[in-house]
Design goal:
mainly beta, 5-stranded mixed β-sheet, elongated, 3% helix, single chain, 1 helix
């Protein structure tokens, strides 16, 4: 452990290895006691000496005195990436499920700050119940849901609404003080037969030209839909948001499968799916795929 030579926050739980006679690398686990920028790192007195050549007598060589330095911020700090998925539409009866587990850039530590906010497209709509759920129940390590009752289709005047659009925003800050923000809009409709739609896995992916690209969409009927509801899936493919004449090679309508060398290197594709129940209004989901050179 680093605590044999150094003194700093979490030294007992860190592993230190010499890369050269003058460079030591400390590896940290994930926990509460971890060195942070602007904290002190000290070298114990008498534990480090110069390397002694085989033909020398070095017993009287001096060892280091105690030295303290300040841990600095890295020149190129890790940037957070906020990745969270929400359905584009929810029906009258359904809860709103939010999944931010794909977010990364915490640097192997707990996030310093996790801030959720919500707003509405209507000045007369009260979002306080939604904000309360975000304040006390939101998570970036597990998916969570906001009760449909917290997203009523009535305004502050008591008038009924056909729809309401809310914007959910997540800001993540890592231990280096770097922050990133992402927002997503959700429309709640008075239609009771709109299914939920989501993409299994990360909504952004990178592939190579020789890879088979597979995206699986998951649809779920609304809880107030008919019990015998059958869902239909319709895929659309865009390259930099320009429509492409490409089709899935999978027999499973839920799956978009593109064979090797179909996608052009250096391009970004949007794979969009519309999922319909008995309502003419579909639920939609999108996956973004970047094709690397190679």
């Amino acid at each position: 452990p680093c605590s044999l030579v150094f003194f700093f926050t979490g030294d007992k739980y860190a592993s230190c290895n010499w890369r050269s006679n003058s460079v030591v690398v400390a590896s940290f686990g994930k926990g509460l006691e971890i060195l942070s920028p602007l904290e002190v790192v000290s070298v114990y007195t008498g534990v480090i000496k110069s390397e002694c050549p085989a033909d020398k007598v070095c017993g009287e060589w001096f060892s280091t005195a105690e030295v303290a330095v300040i841990a600095q911020y890295p020149v190129t700090p890790i940037q957070p990436s906020v990745v969270f998925s929400v359905p584009s539409k929810i029906s009258l009866c359904d809860d709103l499920t939010i999944d931010a587990t794909g977010s990364y850039g915490d640097g192997g530590r707990y996030w310093s700050d996790i801030d959720w906010f919500v707003s509405s497209d209507l000045e007369t709509y009260n979002v306080s119940d939604i904000q309360t759920t975000l304040d006390y129940s939101a998570s970036v390590s597990d998916p969570f849901s906001i009760s449909g009752a917290s997203i009523p289709l009535t305004d502050t005047n008591g008038d009924n609404l056909d729809s309401v659009t809310i914007t959910v925003t997540l800001i993540l800050t890592n231990f280096l003080g770097e922050s990133r923000k992402k927002s997503a809009q959700v429309v709640k409709l008075s239609d009771g037969d709109i299914p939920s739609a989501s993409i299994l896995g990360a909504p952004f992916r990178e592939v190579l030209p020789m890879d088979t690209t597979q995206i699986l969409a998951l649809g779920k009927p609304s809880i107030c839909g008919a019990p015998d509801t059958v869902l239909s899936y319709e895929w659309r493919i865009y390259r930099n948001f320009a429509a492409q004449d490409l089709a899935s090679s999978s027999a499973d309508p839920r799956k978009m499968k593109l064979d090797p060398y179909v996608l052009i290197p250096g391009s970004t594709y949007q794979l969009m799916v519309d999922i319909r129940a008995k309502s003419p209004t579909p639920a939609s989901a999108i996956a973004t795929v970047y094709v690397k050179h190679g």
